[in-house]
Amino acid sequence: MSNITFTMIKPDAVADGHIGAILGKIAEAGFKLKAMKLTQLTVADAKKFYEVHAKRPFYGELVDFMSSGPIVAAVLEKENAVEDFRKLIGATNPAEAAEGTIRKMFARSVGENAVHGSDSDENALIEAQFHFSGREIF
Ligand code: GTP
Ligand code: MG
């Protein structure tokens, strides 16, 4: 699988009622859905998913937040998916995100920033397989 990325609509955006609007922006930008589900991370899932940030001061907060409520997990397909999706979501901190980006429009703060996007092809595949079995990816 090349040209795929993995995303989560995070608990803040789900709670704020933005699932439909965010999926609309993703579809408009030309991404195709390969897999999708409404689910919730356990604390152990969130710790594992964000393990690279384990030494960062915000790790505890990040794990608590990401396991605090339902999320939408999805695998998306498009040419240049990883880079194009990160452009579509905007900077980590919504205050610094460009106009029209998903984080600018829907995020609450740097910690509760509406969406996740994979940062490499390698991680996209690892993250997709973390959330979905082979038979759930189309
Ligand atoms: P993801 O797509 O979620 O991986 O975000 P990112 O790649 O734009 O940022 P990064 O991987 O550096 O950080 C992962 C997540 O940690 C961010 O999306 C935020 O939810 C959270 N995070 C990053 N910096 C801070 C911070 O300074 N404070 C808090 N509370 N959370 C942060
Ligand atoms: Mg990241």
Structure commentary:
- The protein has 138 residues and is of the alpha+beta class.
- The chain has a single domain (4-136), classed as Nucleoside diphosphate kinase-like domain (Alpha-Beta Plaits), CATH 3.30.70.141.
- The protein has helices at residues 11-15, 19-28, 43-49, 59-66, 81-89, 102-106, 121-131; strands at 4-9, 32-39, 71-77, 115-117.
- It has a 4-stranded antiparallel β-sheet.
- The longest helix is centred in the C-terminal third of the chain and has 11 residues, at 121-131.
- This is Nucleoside diphosphate kinase.
- It catalyses: a ribonucleoside 5'-diphosphate + ATP = a ribonucleoside 5'-triphosphate + ADP; a 2'-deoxyribonucleoside 5'-diphosphate + ATP = a 2'-deoxyribonucleoside 5'-triphosphate + ADP.
- The active site is at residue 116.
Keywords:
138 residues, alpha+beta, Alpha-Beta Plaits, four-stranded antiparallel beta sheet, 7 helices, 4 strands, binds guanosine-5'-triphosphate, binds magnesium ion, metal-binding, kinase, EC 2.7.4.6, nucleotide-binding, transferase
What is the gist of this entry?
This protein has 138 residues and is α+β, with helices and mostly antiparallel strands. It has helices spanning 11-15, 19-28, 43-49, 59-66, 81-89, 102-106, 121-131, and strands at 4-9, 32-39, 71-77, 115-117. Guanosine-5'-triphosphate binds next to helix 4 and strand 4.
